[in-house]
C-alpha cells in the first residue's frame, strides 16, 4: 500500500515539471500503441499480446510487493519472450514493414487503411462467389477471426497471397489441384488452400447438404470463423457462423452480411458513396424485375 501512495506522491510532484514535448511524446506513443492494437486485433497475435500484458502487470505487481525471485523469473520470461515474439511474428512484421515502405505519411496516419482493405477483400470475395455460383463451382472460404485456425491450415497448402476474385476463382477451378477443401483467409490475405475442416456432427441439418456444407458448419462450430459456401450442385450461396447456416443468399446480402461480421465498426455512410448509389440502383432494378 505504501508503494502505491509513494507512487502517487511522486507522480503529483512531477506534474508541474511536465513540458509540451512530454505531452507530444505521450500522444505519439499512445497513437503507436493504438495502431499496433488495430493491427493485431482479431488475430492470434491479440491473444499473445494479452498474455504479454498479463506478465507485464504481474512483473509490476511483484516489483511493488518486493517479491524478488518471482520478479526476476518474470523479467527473464519477458526478455526471452521478446526474442521469441520476433521469431514467431517474423512474417507479420515483415509484411508490416513492407506496407509501411509503400505508404505515404497521410496513409500511415490514417486509421481507415485496414478498413479499406477488408472492404476490398469482401468485394473481391463476393464478386468471385457470384461468378462461381453461376458457373456451379463449389466454394468453401473460411474467414479466420480471433480463434486461430493454424491446425486446419496445416492440412492444406500455404498460399499467402492478396485476396482477388481471379485468384479465388483459380483456386476453386475444378481442374486445379487445390480446388478440393477450403481456402482460409487470415488478416485480409489468403493464408492457405485445400484445407481439410472438421465435419459437423449435428444430425438436424438438412439431408440435402453434403460434406462441403458439413465442413463449413463444422469449422464454424469449433471457432468464431465466418464461412462462405457455394454449392456445386445448386449454385446457392450460404454462410455459416457459430454452427448456423444462412442459405440462399443473394450476392448483395452476402456482402452486407460479411461487412457486418468482418467490419462491424463500419457505417454505410463512410463507404464509397458512388458504389453505394450503384448498388442501390441495382437493388431497385432487381426488385422491379
Ligand atoms: N472435411 C472437409 N474439409 C474441407 N472440404 C471438404 C471436406 N469434405 C468435403 N469437402 C469439399 O466438399 C466437396 C464435396 O462436396 P459434396 O458434394 O459432398 O458436398 P455438398 O455440401 O453437397 O456440396 P455441393 O452442394 O457443392 O455439391 C469435396 O470435393 C471437397 O472439396
TrEMBL record:
Keywords: ATP-binding, Cell membrane, Membrane, Nucleotide-binding, Nucleotidyltransferase, Transferase, Transmembrane, Transmembrane helix
Entry's Gene Ontology molecular function annotations: diadenylate cyclase activity
PROSITE patterns: DAC
UniProt cross-references to SUPFAM superfamilies, sorted A to Z: YojJ-like (SSF143597)
Transmembrane segments: 20-40, 52-70
Classification via Pfam families: CdaA_N (PF19293), DAC (PF02457)
Stretches for region Disordered: 267-289
InterPro entries, alphabetized: C-di-AMP_synthase (IPR014046), CdaA (IPR034701), CdaA_N (IPR045585), DisA (IPR050338), DNA_integrity_DisA_N_sf (IPR036888), DNA_integrity_scan_DisA_N (IPR003390)
Record carries keyword Transferase: yes
Keyword Nucleotide-binding: yes
Catalytic activity: 2 ATP = 3',3'-c-di-AMP + 2 diphosphate
Domain DAC: from-to ranges: 90-251
Assigned EC number: 2.7.7.85
Top EC class, one word: transferase
Stored NCBIfam families: diadenylate cyclase CdaA (TIGR00159)
Functional description taken from the UniProt entry: Catalyzes the condensation of 2 ATP molecules into cyclic di-AMP (c-di-AMP), a second messenger used to regulate differing processes in different bacteria.
PANTHER family attached to this UniProt entry: DIADENYLATE CYCLASE
Family: Belongs to the adenylate cyclase family. DacA/CdaA subfamily.
Subunit and interaction comment: Probably a homodimer.
Protein's recorded name: Diadenylate cyclase
Name of the encoding gene: cdaA
Amino acid at each position: 500500500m505504501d508503494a502505491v501512495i509513494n507512487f502517487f506522491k511522486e507522480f503529483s510532484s512531477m506534474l508541474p515539471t511536465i513540458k509540451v514535448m512530454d505531452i507530444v511524446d505521450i500522444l505519439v506513443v499512445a497513437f503507436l500503441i493504438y495502431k499496433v492494437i488495430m493491427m493485431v486485433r482479431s488475430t492470434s497475435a491479440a491473444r499473445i499480446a494479452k498474455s504479454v500484458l498479463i506478465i507485464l502487470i504481474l512483473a509490476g505487481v511483484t516489483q511493488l510487493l518486493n517479491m524478488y525471485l518471482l520478479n526476476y523469473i518474470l523479467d527473464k520470461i519477458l526478455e526471452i519472450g521478446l526474442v521469441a515474439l520476433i521469431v514467431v511474428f517474423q512474417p507479420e512484421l515483415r509484411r508490416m514493414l513492407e506496407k509501411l515502405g509503400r505508404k505515404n505519411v497521410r496513409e500511415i496516419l490514417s486509421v481507415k487503411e485496414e478498413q479499406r482493405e477488408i472492404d476490398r477483400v469482401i468485394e473481391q470475395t463476393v464478386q468471385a462467389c457470384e461468378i462461381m455460383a453461376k458457373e456451379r463451382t463449389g466454394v468453401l472460404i473460411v474467414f479466420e477471426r480471433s480463434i486461430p485456425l493454424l491446425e486446419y491450415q496445416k492440412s492444406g497448402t500455404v498460399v499467402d497471397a492478396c485476396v482477388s476474385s481471379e485468384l479465388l476463382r483459380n483456386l476453386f477451378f475444378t481442374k486445379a489441384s487445390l480446388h478440393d477443401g477450403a481456402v482460409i483467409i487470415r488478416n485480409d490475405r489468403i493464408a492457405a488452400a485445400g484445407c481439410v475442416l472438421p465435419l459437423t456432427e449435428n444430425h438436424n441439418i438438412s439431408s440435402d447438404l453434403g460434406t462441403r456444407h458439413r465442413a463449413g458448419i463444422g469449422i464454424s462450430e469449433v471457432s468464431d470463423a465466418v464461412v462462405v459456401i457455394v454449392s456445386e450442385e445448386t449454385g446457392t450461396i450460404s454462410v455459416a457462423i457459430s454452427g448456423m447456416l444462412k442459405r440462399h443468399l443473394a450476392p448483395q446480402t452476402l456482402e452486407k452480411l460479411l461487412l457486418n461480421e468482418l467490419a462491424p465498426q463500419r457505417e454505410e455512410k463512410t463507404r464509397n458513396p458512388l458504389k453505394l448509389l450503384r448498388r442501390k440502383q441495382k437493388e431497385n432494378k432487381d426488385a422491379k424485375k
